[in-house]
């Protein structure tokens, strides 16, 4: 009888220990599941960032290639159409002087509208997550009045998850009147380096 009385507390303790182990195991499994889910979510974010960066770089390179030799890509309308394919349908070019317009119209105006012009990119960068890029460029050519002009400026582009431009912000290190005169008036007296135009240019 004495032995039987001792067996009950031992059995009870064993049951408690087993229950504790079972509970601890369940907690560990839940913690592992939570950590795994966090890891997978983080990896998905990293993959999405890497994907956007790659798409942004690819699309930016395509735009730069067109701008470097736009005469090779068809008529002015075809060039503007092609450049617009690298932007969303509602994308704008927000020019600090000329205002914000749809990006296709902006490209057409920039290259062919009131000027026969080119854009030479001097420097550029792309954010590590592909959300923004920037460029320093020279916009130069002959304006509608036949006068040569050259302007330096910057552009900051924003991109969606597919690497498509959603907005392009453009600014110049000149006052508005100087820029307007360059494009719609007498041009600029010199190139961006201060060298006067040769007679007849």
Question: What does this 3D model show about the protein?
Answer:
- This protein has a single domain (1-201), classed as Roll (Nuclear Transport Factor 2, Chain: A).
- It has helices at residues 2-68, 76-84, 103-113, 176-184; strands at 87-95, 99-102, 115-126, 132-143, 148-159, 165-171.
- The chain has 201 residues and is of the alpha+beta class.
- Helices cover 48% and strands 28% of the residues.
- It contains four helices and six strands, in the order H-H-E-E-H-E-E-E-E-H.
Low-confidence stretches: none
Shape: elongated
Oligomer: single chain
Structural class: alpha+beta
Strand content: 25-35%
The count of helical stretches stands at 4
Task: Summarize the main sheet.
Answer: 6 strands, mixed
Strand order of the largest sheet: 2-1-6-5-4-3
The separation of the N and C termini measures 119 Å
CATH architecture: Roll
Mean pLDDT: 86
Number of domains: 1
Using the coordinates above, name the CATH class: Alpha Beta
The gyration radius over C-alpha positions equals: 32 Å
Helix content: 40-55%
String of helices and strands: HHEEHEEEEH
CATH fold name: Nuclear Transport Factor 2, Chain: A
Number of strands: 6
């Amino acid at each position: 009888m004495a032995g039987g009385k001792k067996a009950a507390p031992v059995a009870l303790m064993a049951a408690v220990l087993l229950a504790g182990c079972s509970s601890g195991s369940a907690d560990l499994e839940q913690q592992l599941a939570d950590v795994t889910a966090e890891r997978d979510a983080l990896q998905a974010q990293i993959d999405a960032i890497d994907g956007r960066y790659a798409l942004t770089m690819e699309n930016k390179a395509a735009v730069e290639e067109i701008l470097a030799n736009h005469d090779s890509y068809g008529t002015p309308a075809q060039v503007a159409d092609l450049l617009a394919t690298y932007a969303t349908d509602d994308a704008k070019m927000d020019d600090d002087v000329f205002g914000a317009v749809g990006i296709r119209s902006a490209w057409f105006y920039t290259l062919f509208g009131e000027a026969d012009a080119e854009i030479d990119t001097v420097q550029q960068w792309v954010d590590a997550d592909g959300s923004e890029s920037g460029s320093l460029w020279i916009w130069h050519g002959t304006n509608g009045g036949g006068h040569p002009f050259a302007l330096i400026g910057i552009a900051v582009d924003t991109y969606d998850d597919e690497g498509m431009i959603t907005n392009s912000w453009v600014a110049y290190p000149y006052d508005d009147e100087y820029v307007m005169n360059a494009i719609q008036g007498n041009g600029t007296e010199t190139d961006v380096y201060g060298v006067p135009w040769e007679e007849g240019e």
